[in-house]
Amino acid sequence: MIPYSTQTIDNDDLEAVRDVLTSGYLTCGPLIRDFEEQVAAYVGAKYAVGVNSCTSALHLCMCAIGLKKGDRVFVSAISFVASANCARYLDADVDFIDVDKNTGNLDVDCLENMLIEAKKQNRLPKAVVAVHMTGRPVDLERINRLKNEYGFYLIEDAAHALGAIYKGHKIGSCTYSDITVLSFHPVKIITTAEGGMCLTNNEKLYNTMRVLSSHGIEHDREKLFDKSMPNFYYEMQSLGFNYRLSDLQAALGITQLSKIEGFLFKRRELARDYHELLSDDKNLTLPVPDNDDNISSWHLYQVGIPFNKRDFVYNTLRSRGIGVQIHYLPIYRHPYYQSLKKYEPLAGAEYFFERTLSIPLYPKLKKLDMQMCAATLLGLIDEDR
Ligand SMILES: *Cc1c(COP(=O)(O)O)cnc(C)c1O
């Protein structure tokens, strides 16, 4: 089976992990800081907190902004469930923002209408979670203007988007937002097996997330409530978690990050090749190509397929060993969310969900396999059932 995505692991990755295994630290050692600093430098953010998943990173964001029961959070309707679950961990109410029917990115007009309505009801959201779907940046400038007008925290879910560039700023630089989160799951741009990161330019949010990622324990003598205690002393100042990244994972992250430009180059090249091979077929809707202001990391290559053919194409491609996927069921459709309240279907999200298919794209996908995927897809689209 050709998967829709998979990791790229080379000898330098193996050596780095083996070196950690024979060193003094498997976790809580020096490599975590190194990895954090390197990712922060790469994206152009001031602060980074490495954690054991993007889901943990999202949870820490919501804790750090002080989200609580009764608060509201607006989330892109098309995303992985973790983008919304983080608000539910703190018992906040989630409402979903409809998406552009072709890109799956949140529809800023829809967000603005939700904010106007929320203001009338005096129930403005505490936070908005904006997902850079497939690695294509959302319109951060416009969302930032709404943030300034309505006063919410903007969290960028950049699980797909490490390496993407918006108006000259790398995603993760937090130029327009409060916090950006990354995922290092194997299907994402770089991997640490499981892993994630919170990026921010806000020192206070950074300190809170750092402390909460390790049980809420403060070691820094400057920040202790009781400074008169002897050296062994540390304080648990708040209720935190064990969300730490290990040195094993950080070592892998460091070698992976050193190769990111090559990974991105391959993804962009394959995306251009798909575009060339598929663009003559008028039955397919292809992703918008990059432009100077908006450069995707191409985590996914998604094609829009005529409504009545999508499931047939999905099943047939999988039966022929092409591991296509559907990203995603609108989050509000999941039984858990439906059990919370009656979420009405959103037109853009439903359209996107019913027609969109992710086809294989990852750095080591061979050109011949890519061509075979494209040809098989074209054959099915134009086949009369
Ligand atoms: C993968 C993903 C996550 C969760 O990442 P983990 O590291 O697996 O917790 C969150 N949001 C989006 C959009 C994702 O694709």
Produce a short descriptive summary:
Helices cover 38% and strands 14% of the residues. It has helices at residues 11-21, 31-43, 54-64, 82-88, 108-120, 140-150, 203-212, 247-258, 260-278, 310-319, 335-340, 347-355, 367-381, and strands at residues 47-51, 72-76, 93-97, 127-131, 153-157, 165-166, 169-170, 179-183, 196-200, 217-218, 235-236, 294-295, 301-304, 356-359. The strands form 4 sheets. The protein has a 7-stranded mixed beta sheet with strand order 1-9-8-5-4-2-3, with helices on both faces. A 3-stranded antiparallel beta sheet has the order 7-6-12, with no helix packed on it.
Characterize the structure shown.
The protein is 38% helix and 14% strand. The protein is of the alpha/beta class and 385 residues long. The radius of gyration is 21 Å and the shape is globular. The chain starts with 10 loop residues before the first helix and ends with a helix. Bound molecules: pyridoxal-5'-phosphate. Pyridoxal-5'-phosphate binds at residues 53-55, 79-80, 82-83, 131, 157, 159-160, 183, 185, 196. Pyridoxal-5'-phosphate binds next to α3 and α4.
* Rounded average pLDDT: 97
Order of strands, widest sheet:
1-9-8-5-4-2-3
Small-molecule binders here are: pyridoxal-5'-phosphate
Number of strands: 14
Task: Set down the secondary structure blueprint.
Elements: H1 11-21, H2 31-43, E1 47-51, H3 54-64, E2 72-76, H4 82-88, E3 93-97, H5 108-120, E4 127-131, H6 140-150, E5 153-157, E6 165-166, E7 169-170, E8 179-183, E9 196-200, H7 203-212, E10 217-218, E11 235-236, H8 247-258, H9 260-278, E12 294-295, E13 301-304, H10 310-319, H11 335-340, H12 347-355, E14 356-359, H13 367-381
Parallel strand pairs: 2-3, 2-4, 4-5, 5-8
Antiparallel strand pairs: 1-9, 6-7, 6-12, 8-9, 10-11, 13-14
Pyridoxal-5'-phosphate is lined by residues 53-55, 79-80, 82-83, 131, 157, 159-160, 183, 185, 196.
